[in-house]
Amino acid sequence: MTQQQLGSFPGGLKLPGHKKRSTQMPIRRMPISKRLILPLQQHIGEAAVPIVEVGEKVLKGQRVARAEGHVSVCLHAPTSGVIRAIADHQVPHPSGLTAPCIMIETDGEDRWIERDPVLDFRSLSSHEIRQRVREAGIVGLGGAGFPSFIKLNPGVRHHVETLLINGAECEPYITCDDMIMRERAAGIIEGIEIMMFALRAKECVIAIEDNKPESISAMRFALTANKALSETTRIVIIPTKYPTGGEKQLIQVVTGKQVPSKGLPIDIGIVCHNPATAYAVGRAIRHGEPLLSRIVTVTGTDVTHAGNFETLFGTPIRELLEFCETKRQPDEPFIMGGPMMGYNLSGDDLPITKTSNCILVGVDDVAIASQPLPCIRCGECAAACPASLLPQQLYWYSRSKEFDKTEEYNLFDCIECGCCDYVCPSKIPLVSYFRFAKTEIMNQERERRKSDIARERHENRLARQERERLEKEERQKQRKAALAASKAAQKKAENTETESTTETAAVKEDN
Amino acid sequence: MLTAILALTLLALIFGLLLGYASVKFKVEGDPIVEQIDKLLPQTQCGQCSYAGCRPYAEAIAAGEADINRCPPGGEATILALADLLDVEPKPLDEEVGAEKPKMLAVIDEARCIGCTLCIQACPVDAILGAAKHMHTVIADECTGCELCVAPCPVDCIDMVRTTPSPTTWRWPDPEHITVQEKIEEEQA
């Protein structure tokens, strides 16, 4: 296979990686927590619906909530124990709000439920593979948490050319994908084989940034061991630049093609998955293991023993931080995700979920919070934007709440990478404005749909009242008519009676 | 002279016929501007604007009888949208009709409900369910928070509560209102 010329995307930044801190130790297993908190919504789409009752004993890998609707996945008990409660609990979300969770008290025995491994995945249809992936609760482990089975469906209208494995991991500090590629390359390759089969994809590209030489060699080694797959799969080494790991940016780098605005990669025949997701698919099909844990990077300047930890879902983040020994005080905020795209969380009892890729406590060369200065229209943000947007225009319109204008300037193509924030000489929190505008627009859309329903219900009510009024009138008219008719009949009867009496009288007289 | 008059008369006749035909053929049903205004109103049917519902208010705006700043549930967003549509200057909400409030939801205290059906009759969007002498309840998804059911209740068992956002409906705060000082204070607290 010939090495293709790499493309590139506009803008982007060269950032210090800070990755060495958490790659000094192999992946360690986090001890089982006494109590696990499982939010029912750990993915994009409809929340899962609990199918267990409080007090019920569950085994490791047992389904505790089923998928609801199409865009949804199942949820499983990460270890054996007893369901203690199904109640609202604070979830790791920028809002700090609560959401329904299943609380499990673990018994420490870690007893598995009976598993159903499929040794030869080719005996399954691609529909069966998708069904199993859905049942196993697998979502994109890169951070967004979109149900993976949907992205394993080539559909009727599309034809998948390329399966792209996104091993870029471009954001500073985060190393969970790097570590899984180093240590579990064979498992990832196993998963890729299944994904290729389900998608009927022609080729697979594993894209890894050039700052991860250990991952590259591990993946190469694992790939050469699989003769059949190595014919259709290649590893592409891409230059380290932020945000190459953005799906659309990576596609541009690897293929030179652009995903259309408001479009999906599948529109140009590409499906993109994270290496950890591929590993999870392999485990689910070949070993019958649902998704119960993930690799979480715990790092930052205030962490003493930084590293990557295989952590069961629902493990309180506090326990993970205690395990790594941090200088953090209780209830002090920390970052979920990386320094560029992550968000602040505070609260000690938050659980690890399917989308928690990194816990960051303390960042090097942190920018001192200062009052933002006015925009000087220097255009640095536009030069840095990897999606070719005009952040300063979007900023003006978001600020003045002219949301229709922000949409005209393609606000929804913004991937919130934070490059514009980083380069802004006035230190304007641009992404905060864009996030605000996006959720406002989505809310307006929701309200509009609701008001349409309200209008319809109101109109239906008015129509019903009108109909009832008419019916009442009609009934009254009928009753009146009936009354009049009966009166007339009575009168007539009386008349005939009198007539007949007069007649009989006449007859009598005659006699 | 005569030809000119004839030609102009003929032209006038032709165009008259053409326009007459067009006005019959392409007749617009209803008043489109009323529809457009109605689309922007929140459809709570609450009557706080002093009209009998959103559509009558829309008709009044279209007729130039009412101002665009009389809708408290719609608030600033609706006024801006109306100003944009009608190409007039936006103005603050009319104090006479009340203040902009967060979205509310009617909740019936089911233990106290006597089943009088008065609230069912008052609800403009049929969001209350129940029968005579049986407990009533609010269909939360359909309630517009118009408060019209509160006054008719003889036992005062309907409360308006603030709707709490869930993580999926939560909105990022307006950065304009968060000053750095607040942020630092928050972090220290």
UniProtKB/TrEMBL annotation, chain A:
Task: Say which domain of life the source belongs to.
Answer: Bacteria
Q: Which GO terms describe its cellular component?
A: plasma membrane
Residues of the region (Disordered) are: 1-23, 445-511
Per UniProt, residues of the 4Fe-4S ferredoxin-type domain are 364-395, 405-434
Q: Which organism is it from?
A: Methylophaga lonarensis MPL
Biased segments, Basic and acidic residues type: 445-476
Residues binding [4Fe-4S] cluster 2 are C385, C414, C417, C420
**Sorted alphabetically, which keywords does the UniProt record give?**
4Fe-4S, Cell inner membrane, Cell membrane, Electron transport, Iron, Iron-sulfur, Membrane, Metal-binding, Repeat, Translocase, Transport
Q: What is this protein called?
A: Ion-translocating oxidoreductase complex subunit C
- Protein's job: Part of a membrane-bound complex that couples electron transfer with translocation of ions across the membrane.
TrEMBL record, chain B:
The record's annotation in Gene3D superfamilies points to: 3.30.70.20, Electron transport complex subunit B, putative Fe-S cluster
Q: Which sites bind [4Fe-4S] cluster 1? A: C46, C49, C54, C71
Judging by the UniProt lineage, the source's domain of life is Bacteria
Enumerate the residue ranges of region (Hydrophobic): 1-23
Example GO CC term: the record gives:
plasma membrane
The subcellular location is: Cell inner membrane
Which example biological process does GO assign this protein? electron transport chain
UniProt-listed InterPro entries: 4Fe-4S_dom (IPR007202), 4Fe4S_Fe-S-bd (IPR017896), 4Fe4S_Fe_S_CS (IPR017900), Elect_transpt_cplx_RnfB/RsxB (IPR010207), RnfB/RsxB_Proteobac (IPR016463), RnfB_subfamily (IPR050294)
Binding residues annotated for [4Fe-4S] cluster 3, in chain numbering: C123, C143, C146, C149
Write out the similarity annotation: Belongs to the 4Fe4S bacterial-type ferredoxin family. RnfB subfamily.
Q: Which residues form the 4Fe-4S ferredoxin-type domain?
A: 104-133, 134-163
Q: Name one Pfam family in it.
A: Fer4_21
> What is the E.C. number?
7.-.-.-
Q: What is this protein called?
A: Ion-translocating oxidoreductase complex subunit B
Query: What PROSITE patterns does the entry give?
Result: 4FE4S, 4FE4S_FER_1, 4FE4S_FER_2
Cofactor, how bound (note): Binds 3 [4Fe-4S] clusters.
Sorted alphabetically, the keyword list is: 4Fe-4S, Cell inner membrane, Cell membrane, Electron transport, Iron, Iron-sulfur, Membrane, Metal-binding, Repeat, Translocase, Transport
